[in-house]
Amino acid sequence: MPVRLSSGELTGLLDGHGVAEDLPIHGVKEMMDKDPALELQEIIKHYDIGDLLGFELNQRGYVNLSYVIETVKAGQKYRYFLRKYKKGISAQELDFEHSLIAHLVAKKFHQVARVIPTKSLGSYVLQYEGGQSKGPVFYAVFELLPGEDKYTWVNPNCDQPELVSAAGILARFHQAVTDLKPAGSRAEPKIVDLLPVIAGTLSEYLNRTKHTAFDQYLLDNLDLIKVNLEKTRRVLAQPTYRQLLQLPIHCDYHPGNLKFQQGEVVGLFDFDWSKIDARCFDLALAIFYFFTSWGAKSDGRLRLDQVTLFLKTYQQTLKNLPGAIPLNSLELNFLPTLINAGNLYVLNWTIEDYLNKEVDPQEYLVFLRHGVNFAKWYEDPKDQKKLQESIQKI
């Protein structure tokens, strides 16, 4: 899911609302207190990539634990990206992710990092920490992508060339996977089937509060979120929704999961949330991530001129690709509702993460407030009309 932002970035967001002056990056200290050198050495024994020279913890993630590692083989130094997946993920989900990446590599989609095979030609290493009763832990090694990590998911504000490039890459990605027959499957349901699960989480929330500022803000806005969710469910319950084009989607396409070089996207990563779902939802979630403002006075509002630019570029890219299927009128009609569903999807992650982990309530309050502000913006009929007009311009 979203990549982690720095304490400085959080401070700026919080100061605008008078919540806090400084915050730690939750979890990083705890992870670094445990020396991972022996663990990494043990994992790379399963690969023909040489001996471990050094490593650096990637501090941007909320879900998995990742490192940039440096190895030496036959006197030559190499750098890779090593991921330790979150506990609870299944082999079927890794098979899905890695078959998707392999398909993109075969299609010469150069913005993805190849999965490095193990010595036994597998795509991951399986270990058990504390015995099999504790459950499996999976590791994978990837090529290290070029480019710059310029943004997180919070307040990315890409410039116009970057937006145009990102829209084109998303279109090319969707076209490249139309013929994919993936191995395995993602456990998470499609968004239309996930919404009732989110409704259940909200209903059960009152029994799980931690009595923090996060809880108070959520309680104050719980009815708003529930009404917004129910409206979304009713729209997606229409029979025509099931006619939307379904394909493997990235499901986490935001600037923090892209690498840039001279205004161009040169890297696309973090496919572990990918699944089969409506293409239009992937586009809608990207729009929510890219264009929802985080400013103190504009938090939650979509930057509609940029939405139009992104959609026009996406559509034009598909029109120029042989055999591609551009967005049709049905997809465009459902797009506003799916953008709102994208907000609910991220809100659900925020609430679930807060409830199930030891996190900083102030940090997650920023994310919660952002989602609530979007819901308030979206519920205004005038803003919905403006959004529809922005989409019609393409």
What does this molecule look like?
The protein has 394 residues and is of the alpha+beta class. It has two domains: 27-143, Phosphorylase Kinase, domain 1 (2-Layer Sandwich), CATH 3.30.200; 160-392, Aminoglycoside 3'-phosphotransferase, Chain: A, domain 2. The chain contains twelve helices and nine strands. The strands form three sheets. The protein has a five-stranded antiparallel beta sheet with strand order 1-2-3-5-4, with helices on one face. Strands 6-9 form a two-stranded antiparallel ribbon. The radius of gyration is 21 Å and the shape is globular.
Describe the secondary-structure layout.
Blueprint: H1 7-15, H2 28-33, H3 37-44, E1 51-58, E2 65-73, E3 76-84, H4 91-106, E4 125-128, E5 136-143, H5 160-176, H6 191-204, H7 213-236, E6 246-249, E7 258-261, E8 264-268, E9 275-278, H8 279-291, H9 304-320, H10 329-356, H11 361-379, H12 381-392
Antiparallel strand pairs: 1-2, 2-3, 3-5, 4-5, 6-9, 7-8
Radius of gyration: 21 Å
Distance between the termini: 29 Å
The residue fraction in helices comes out at 40-55%
Indicate the low-confidence ranges by residue numbers. Answer: 3-8, 14-33
Give a short summary of the structure.
The chain has 394 residues and is of the alpha+beta class.
Features:
Aminoglycoside 3'-phosphotransferase, Chain: A, domain 2; alpha+beta; Phosphorylase Kinase, domain 1; five-stranded antiparallel beta sheet; 9 strands; 394 residues; 2 domains
